[in-house]
Amino acid sequence: MNKIQIDIVSDIACPWCAIGYARLEQAMEQLGPEYEFTVQWHAFELDPGQSGEGDPILQALAKKYGGSEEDMRANQRHMMTVAKDLGLNFDKLQERLTCNTFDAHRLVKWAGEQDQQTVMKQALFEAYFGKAMNVSDQNVLLGCVEGLGLDPAKAKHVLESDQYTAAVREDEATYQKAGVTSVPAYIINSKYLISGAQEPATLVQALQEISAEVA
């Protein structure tokens, strides 16, 4: 049995992170029963200074990257096509507002203690990209919790406290220090870095090569 630990550095506000994980899932499925994967999610904030109601996403992206809103719209349309082929809901990708993701990251940490980290991350991706919901809003976050069958009262207690704040900050500091400047980033077996939302075939080859080297 080939055991592989995958640490995923990502942000809930990053569409390519959702696409990247869907592709990684396909790669892990292709590698089949000879491989045993352990996946752990780590926090990264694309816009840690974001507060308030947020700005329309196309406007915000145009300002950040120096392009036009139409350029951003074309980029988003491309991502929507890619996502649809992977079975992801990106229906409201172009209608969302920028928002702060810190509390959502704390909730992912909490869900992780119940072995529900990945499904929590996926629920947050769908809320933001599929429904254009504000994933900094406590009611939205608690709706995601309830939708997964987790305890919203316990999640509410987490959100109204400072629980997991230190864990999220530690993640961010650790991976910034390690040189991670864009996401998604995959650290394989605490040693190898794969950057970006790579195609499943590329991931399969990389994971096979890493496994062979370890062996």
Tag the structure with descriptive keywords.
single chain; 215 residues; alpha+beta; Glutaredoxin; four-stranded mixed sheet
SSE blueprint and pairings:
Layout: E1 2-10, H1 15-31, E2 35-43, H2 57-65, H3 69-85, H4 102-112, H5 117-130, H6 138-147, H7 152-159, H8 165-177, E3 185-188, E4 192-195, H9 200-214
Parallel strand pairs: 1-2
Antiparallel strand pairs: 1-3, 3-4
Task: Report on this structure.
This protein is of the alpha+beta class and 215 residues long. It has one domain (2-214): Glutaredoxin, CATH 3.40.30. Helix content is 53%, strand content 12%. The protein contains nine helices and four strands. It has helices at 15-31, 57-65, 69-85, 102-112, 117-130, 138-147, 152-159, 165-177, 200-214, and strands at residues 2-10, 35-43, 185-188, 192-195. It has a four-stranded mixed β-sheet. The radius of gyration is 17 Å and the shape is globular. The mean pLDDT is 96.
Summarize the structure.
With 215 residues, the chain is of the alpha+beta class. 53% of the residues lie in helices and 12% in strands.
Number of strands: 4
CATH architecture level-2 label? 3-Layer(aba) Sandwich
CATH names the topology as: Glutaredoxin
Overall radius of gyration: 17 Å
Which class of secondary structure composition applies to the elements? alpha+beta
Mean pLDDT: 96
CATH superfamily: Glutaredoxin
For the record, the CATH class is Alpha Beta
Strand content: 5-15%
- Sheet of most strands: 4 strands, mixed
Number of structurally distinct domains = 1
